[in-house]
Specification:
There is one protein chain. Strands 1, 2, 3, 4, 5, 6, 7 and 8 form an 8-stranded mixed sheet that branches. The chain has one domain: 3-Layer(aba) Sandwich (Aminopeptidase), CATH 3.40.630.30. The relative contact order is 0.17. By secondary structure, the chain is α+β, with helices and mostly antiparallel strands. It contains 10 helices and 8 strands. About 35% of the residues lie in helices and about 20% in strands. It starts with a helix and ends in a 5-residue tail after the last helix.
């Protein structure tokens, strides 16, 4: 069964075989970014993926990320093909920097915080294939690693901002539900976005209704793995092309003192 056929069958609620943790059909194997080179490969891929989709404008660094993602509270998940990063997603735990989606949905996220929720935003999804359906297996496995990261840090809820046309797919597969109206998102060149939320405990209780969650439950990731994640050492980042990119984003220059994220990240959870 092709990747496209399997994806369509999954979302239609038909019975299909669960993919293995390493996907021989696509040649991808999955893990986490453990060093700066892994992160740079992931965010170079993200740049190409977002540029192709019209979500960003070209930049001279060939990188894309958000300042909120820089710190020990972030996990970058990667899928490899022949030693090269071919798919990626990031999980950003709430911190004093807040979350990228706070720029669009501050009231909704603050309401979650006021009720004691520990929120993780999952986003920055990039894949080297142009056909979204063909990246289905990759997203499936990337989300598995991201979900267990959430478990490892005691998060209660996951949020993501996605194109509204994909909301029903995420609801069926990953137990997401919309908690905010459709808006335009400046970070992706004004494209429409909708805020989705998934409560981790509720998703587990209802896993039989959400095949991805059921698959995650039956194919756990060792929580010890996340101790090896790259933690964005401030000196290492500041002296790299990633530091130059972030200085250009935060300060409008390619040189000069480290931007505020570099000073603030030391206080991140």
């Amino acid at each position: 069964m092709s990747d496209i056929t399997t994806a369509q069958a999954f979302y239609a609620g038909q019975d299909v075989a669960s993919p293995s943790p390493d996907l021989p059909s696509s040649g991808l194997s999955f893990g986490i970014a453990e060093n700066l080179d892994d992160v740079l490969q992931a965010w170079r891929l993200l740049y190409q993926s977002y540029l192709r989709a019209g979500f960003i404008k070209p930049n001279p660094f060939g990188l894309h990320t958000v300042p909120h993602a820089i710190g020990p509270h972030t996990l970058v998940v990667i899928g490899h093909r022949h030693g090269e990063v071919a798919s990626t997603i990031s999980a950003i735990s709430d911190s004093h920097l807040k979350l990228p989606l706070d720029s669009v949905y501050p009231d909704e996220l603050d309401d979650m915080r006021s009720h004691g929720c520990h929120v993780v935003e999952i986003g920055l999804f990039g894949d080297d294939r142009k056909d979204v359906d063909r990246s289905f297996y990759a997203l499936f496995e990337l989300m598995r690693f991201a979900t267990y990261y959430c478990v490892s840090i005691g998060a209660t809820d996951v949020v993501c901002g996605i194109p509204p046309r994909r909301a029903k797919l995420y609801a069926r597969a990953f137990a997401f539900e919309p908690i905010g109206p459709e808006k335009t998102y400046d970070s992706v060149e004004g494209h429409p976005v909708i805020l989705l939320r998934s409560n981790i405990a509720a998703g587990r209780l209802n896993s039989r209704f959400h095949r991805a969650i059921d698959y995650f439950t039956n194919h756990p990731v060792s929580l010890d793995l996340y101790e090896r994640r790259f933690r964005f050492d401030s000196d290492l980042v500041a002296n790299s092309i990633l530091g130059e990119f972030l200085r250009s984003k935060c300060c409008g220059t390619h040189t000069g003192s480290p931007p505020s994220w570099d000073l603030q990240r030391k206080k991140a959870v």
